[in-house]
Amino acid sequence: MPVVIDRARSRDRIAHDVLTLTEPQYTSSSTAICRYAYTPEYRRTADYFAARLRELGFEVWEDAVGNLVGQNVPRGERVYGLGSHCDSNRNGGPWDGPLGVAVALEVCRLSGEHGLDLPLRVISFLEEEGSGFGQMLLGSRIAAGRITDEELRDGLRAIDDGRPFVEHAREAGYRPQEWRSCSETLDDLDGWIETHIEQGRVLQDEGTTLGIVEAIAGYVHADVHLDGRAGHAGATPMIGRADALATAAEIILEAERLAVQAGHATVATVGELDVEPGLINVVPGAVRLSLDTRGVREDAFRGVASALESFAQEAARRRGVAARYVQRTAVAPTPMDAGILAALQESADAAGITHRRMASGAAHDTMCVAGRAPSAMVFVPCRDGISHAPEEDSDPADAALAAEVVLNALVRLRATAPS
Ligand SMILES: [Zn+2]
User: Fold this and answer.
1) pLDDT digits (tens, 9 = 90+) for 363-399
2) 35 C-alpha to ligand 1 centroid (Å)
3) 277 burial level (CB within 10 Å; 0-12, 13-18, 19+)
4) What spacing in Å lies between the alpha carbon of 238 and ligand 1's midpoint?
C-alpha cells in the first residue's frame, strides 16, 4: 500500500522553506537570488537546512570543502541519499537547487511522521552553479574525485576577487588540502534521488506533473578560430575577400542544421562570438565562435561536433580563411538507474500523478553521484521553463507530489532490496 501524505501540509512546508531563503539575509542582491560558496548568505542558507535537519534528529556535518550532509542513522550504515544544491546562479531565482533540498527535507519529515524509519542522508552540494569560482558541479566533482590537485590549487579562482579557491575555503574554516576525504560524502549510498526544477517547458506545455529523468545529457564544448584578412569595407571588392565573420555565419547555420538532422533531441548552440577588429567599416579579419552540443546519445552529439569541424574546414577553405577547431571538454551522457526509475514510475502511477520519462539537457550534481550509487532525478515543472533568472517560479504543490513519489519509491526500493 502506498503511503498517503497530507499534500497541502507538505506543499506549505516546502513553500515555507524555499521562500524563507529569498529573504534578504540569504541573498546578496535585492533583485535576484545571489549566493555563492563561502559567502555569508551561503553560510546562512546552509545553516538554515542544517537546523531543520537537526530538528528532525539528524546528525549534520560538512565535509572538508563544505558539502552539507545530514543523516538519521550512524555513519557507516547504508542509506538512501536525497538532495541537490543551495547556491545560486549569478542572477538566480528561488527554486533552482533549494527546491531539491527542500523536497529532500520534506521526505525526511514524512518518513518520521509516517513511522517509516527510512535510513536517509541529505546532501546539499557546494557551488553547483559555478557562480563563485567559475566551475560547475564543483562540490560533487570534488566528492566524486573528478578533479585534480592542480586544478584545485591553481585553476580555481574566485570570480569576484581573483583569489584562489583554497584560500577562500580555508578562511571559511574548511580543509581544502584534505579534499580527497570528501569521497566519504558519497559512501554507503544504496540509491540517490535529486529533485530539481525542469528548466524547460515540456512538462508545463504537456500538462504533466513530474518528469522522471532517464539520462543526463553529455556534451562537447569546443571553439572554432577563423583567421581571414581584414580590409577596408569600402575599398575591398567583394571578390577575393577572406571574411572570417561570413565564414562563421555559415558555420553557425550548419551547427543548427546538423543538430536537427542528428535527432534524438540532440542540440547545438553557438553562444559566444568574438569578432576582430569589430568595426563597422572593416571586413572582419578574425573570429572565434564557441560550440556547445549535447544529448543523451553520445554518437549523435559527437557526430555533430566532428561534422561541424569538417564543415568549418571546408567553408573556410572556400573563402580563403584558415580554420582551427579546438575541443575544450567532452563529457559522456549519464544514464540513470533502471531500478530507481521503475520505483519512481510505479509510485507515481499508484498515486495517480501524471509523469513522463525525459532527458535532462542541463548538467546536475547527480552526474557525479551516479558513478558511486544507483541514481535518478525527478523534475518538477517551472513556469514557462524560466530558470537562472529572478522570475523563476515553480508550484510548491508539484514539489509536494515529488516528495510523495520519492518517499514511496524509497519504500519500494527498501522492500525489494536484498537484506
Ligand atoms: Zn540546479
Assistant:
1) 999 999 999 999 999 999 999 999 999 999 999 999 9
2) 13
3) exposed
4) 48
156 pLDDT more than 80: yes
Residues 25, 133: one domain?
A: yes
Per-residue pLDDT at 1: 81
Beta bridge partners of 387: none
All 3 cell numbers of residue 288?
A: 572565434
Instruction: Let me know if residue 358 belongs to a domain.
Output: yes
What are phi and psi for residue 292, nearest 5 degrees?
-125, 110
What CATH number should be reported for the domain holding residue 224?
3.30.70.360
Specify whether the CB–CB gap between 106 and 403 falls below 8 A: yes
Ligand 1 is an ion; its neighbours by CB within 5 Å are 96-97
Residue type, 383: R
In terms of pTM, does the model score above 0.70? yes
- CATH number of the domain that 403 lies in? 3.40.630.10
Cβ-count burial 320-358 (b if 16+ within 10 Å, e if not): ebebebeeeeebebbebbebbbbbbbebbeebebebbeb
The number of folded domains in the chain is 2
Q: Using the structure block, give the residue that is written with the C-alpha cell 550534481.
A: 365
Average pLDDT, the chain: 96
